[in-house]
Amino acid sequence: MPDAYHTSGPANFLRDYSSLFTVEGIPGSVVDLACGDGQNGLYLARRGLFVEFWDQTENRVCNITKEAEGEGLSVRGRIVNLELPGVNPLEENAYGAVLVFRYLHRPLIPCIKKSIKKGGLLMYETFTRAQAALGRPKNPDFLLRPGELRSWFQDWTIIHDFEGFEKTPPRAIAQILCKRP
């Protein structure tokens, strides 16, 4: 049975809004930040989008890009530490969409906002403080406060916003899908 961290296949949230992630609708490449096993980015690459997989774990990035290239998909892997103090690894106004799932590093939020091109999309899903009662993560540094995710993007066009509990797997999350004005 999957736990709050591990899923099989792309996130339901991404599947539910996949019609927005098209070659015609995304103004540039997609970045899957802290990509983990890459299932979300691979899903979009299989739909014809150019996807960059970013993670600090070299083995993960290599395995994902090897799998994608074996399928003839347009991808690039980047081994990067997203948490270096004072370093913004994201180029400004460079990406058509950014995906973030099960990851939170608050100093990176302004960098993410600036990296997305006008009209580009952000899809973000991670754990809230209520997750601590259900299991890991428990460290408040990795858990959103009530309303925090929405507050960061209140000046964007919000397409979807959810904060609460999911049953499968059991987890307390916040989600946002928004478009840069």
SSE blueprint:
Elements: H1 12-16, E1 30-33, H2 39-45, E2 51-55, H3 58-70, E3 75-79, E4 95-101, H4 109-115, E5 116-127, H5 148-152, E6 157-166, E7 171-179
Parallel strand pairs: 1-2, 1-4, 2-3, 4-5
Antiparallel strand pairs: 5-7, 6-7
Which structural category do the helix and sheet elements fall into? alpha/beta
Q: Portion of residues in helices? A: 10-25%
Biggest β-sheet: strands ordered side by side in the sheet: 3-2-1-4-5-7-6
What separation lies between the terminal Cα atoms?
A: 40 Å
The CATH class turns out to be: Alpha Beta
Total of helices: 5
Number of strands: 7
Number of domains: 1
Structure description:
There is one protein chain. The chain has five helices and seven strands; from the N terminus they run αβαβαββαβαββ. The protein has one domain: Rossmann fold (3-Layer(aba) Sandwich). The protein is globular and about 45 Å long. With 181 residues, the protein is α/β, with parallel strands linked by helices. The longest helix has 13 residues, at 58-70. Helix 4 (109-115) links the parallel strand 4 and strand 5. It is 20% helix and 29% strand.
Overview in brief:
With about 180 residues, the chain is of the alpha/beta class.
List its traits.
181 residues, alpha/beta, Rossmann fold, seven-stranded mixed beta sheet, 5 helices, 7 strands, globular
